[in-house]
Design a protein that fits this description.
The protein is of the alpha/beta class and 388 residues long. The chain has a domain of 266 residues: Rossmann fold. The chain has twelve helices and eight strands. Strands 2-1-3-4-5-8 form a six-stranded mixed sheet. A two-stranded antiparallel ribbon has the order 6-7. The longest helix has 24 residues. It is globular and about 60 Å long. The protein binds 2-acetamido-2-deoxy-beta-D-glucopyranose (4 copies). InterPro entries: GDSL, SGNH_hydro_sf, SGNH_plant_lipase-like. Pfam families: Lipase_GDSL. This is GDSL-like lipase/acylhydrolase. It comes from Medicago truncatula (Barrel medic).
């Protein structure tokens, strides 16, 4: 309807019908989004969203991990806060306790099942002898299932432990976040698979991802916030270990990033289908690749320098010959691979993880919904969209 026609229409309307019309305009249609009051967050994933899970099971990464914000190593793989911390903070919720942490944990507002080194597929090489976390996504799902039944029991029993668990209705009202897949791909490269071979494993990895999301849905989860995978080809871990990789114009290993892009494409499509299969769920795909990649495209714009060089570490072109916090002996002198002077001017903290400064910028971008499918913001991620 053109404006003038609308105007004509209004002029001929009675007061009553005008009020009815106004009510229709201001009453949100079924599609409208609403602000979500998430009382809890349950997180599944790997090191990018680990708040101390792997540290609880094995040991915390050494100092200077955590130096910027927590001033101690909390088990996070960064100098400070990670994106999940900013998500929790944005809802006024406390930082998530790792499910695996038996001391001092408070699960009132959720739990974190993510651990560094976690994969979607079941790994064939696990810590401490191998390289991956034993807590792959399927195990995290089993732990979550166990968490629900134990909290039900504890709630019935009452007492002090009952004050440390979520309310019963929090499980359906909570936000469920996922950030996993990077290790499945990187594991392939380090397992001597060619880029093509790793690329060919993507559909199977994504299928397993979806199976686990469905399983978690079947336990009552409804609001899903699912991160895509990162541009691994921009990280020192890939750049230093695969030096002959073809680089794009921003110095990132092109084909490694293409595999990440293929993973993300498959994930986005699978989630679109899942939205149709599970109409009661609000499923948001979050492209975390693009805002992370843009940091490498235009580091100066964000106040960053040396985009591909780890802030914490020692030696080599990418500063990761010795891992962050590790000690080496150079000609009889002990040297700790420490932090750069100012982590806030760096994108990369260690070989593959981002600094708090980078995490904050990425959080600010993804929380608006600008990188989401459907394009809804974090605080509206409880709205289900089914596009027929
Ligand atoms: C657990 O966390 C909640 C919410 O932050 C808080 O109100 C409560 O006091 C905490 N419980 C303990 C024992 O610290
Ligand atoms: C990959 O190849 C290297 C060099 O040939 C070898 O040392 C390493 O054990 C291989 N790794 C795997 C997981 O097969
Ligand atoms: C990965 O596989 C897809 C589907 O076959 C293909 O379109 C894409 O070009 C492949 N990417 C790489 C880097 O091999
Ligand atoms: C260790 O000492 C040797 C012999 O003095 C010297 O050539 C080498 O550069 C030293 N290495 C480092 C890392 O300083």
């Amino acid at each position: 309807m053109k404006f003038m026609e609308k105007f004509e229409l209004l002029r001929h309307m009675s007061l009553v019908s005008l009020i009815v019309l106004i009510l229709c305009i201001i009453t949100p249609p079924i599609f409208a989004t609403r602000n979500c009051d998430f009382p809890a967050i349950f997180s599944f994933g790997a090191s990018n969203v680990d708040t101390g899970g792997l540290a609880a099971a094995f040991q915390a990464p050494p100092s200077p991990y955590g130096e910027t914000y927590f001033h101690r190593s909390t088990g996070r793989f960064s100098d400070g806060r990670i994106i999940l911390d900013f998500i929790a903070q944005s809802f006024g919720l406390p930082y998530l306790s790792p499910y695996l942490n038996s001391l001092g944990s408070n699960f009132t507002h959720g739990a974190n099942f993510a651990t560094g080194g976690s994969t979607i597929n079941i790994p064939n090489s696990i810590i401490p002898n191998g390289i991956f976390s034993p807590f792959s996504l399927q195990i995290q799902y089993i732990q979550f299932k166990d968490f629900i039944s134990k909290t039900n029991l504890i709630r019935d029993q009452g007492g002090v432990f009952a004050t440390l668990i979520p309310k019963e209705d929090y499980f359906s009202k909570a936000l469920y976040t996922f950030d996993i897949g990077q290790n499945d791909l990187i594991g392939g490269y380090f397992g001597n698979k060619t880029i093509k071979q790793v690329n060919a494993t993507v559909p199977d990895i994504v299928n397993n991802f979806i199976v686990n999301i469905k399983n978690i849905y079947n336990l009552g989860a409804r609001s899903f916030w699912i991160h895509s995978t990162v541009p691994s080809g921009c990280t020192p871990t890939i750049l230093a270990n695969f030096p002959s990789a073809i680089k794009d114009s921003y110095g990132c290993a092109k084909q490694y990033n293409e595999v990440s892009q293929y993973f993300n494409l498959k994930l986005k499509k699978a989630l679109a289908q899942l939205r149709v299969d599970l109409p009661l769920a609000a499923i948001t795909y979050v492209d975390i690749y693009s805002p992370k990649y843009s940091l490498f495209q235009n580091p100066k714009k964000y106040g960053f320098e040396l985009p591909h060089v780890a802030c914490c570490g020692y030696g080599g072109k990418y500063n990761i010959r010795v891992g962050c916090g590790e000690t080496i002996n150079i000609n009889g002198t002990k040297i700790v691979a420490g932090s750069c002077k100012n982590p806030s001017t760096r994108i990369i903290w260690d070989g593959s993880h981002f600094t708090e400064a980078a995490n904050k910028i990425v959080f600010d971008q993804i929380s608006t919904g600008a990188f989401s499918d459907p394009p809804i913001s974090l605080n509206r991620a409880c709205t289900s969209f089914v596009v027929y």
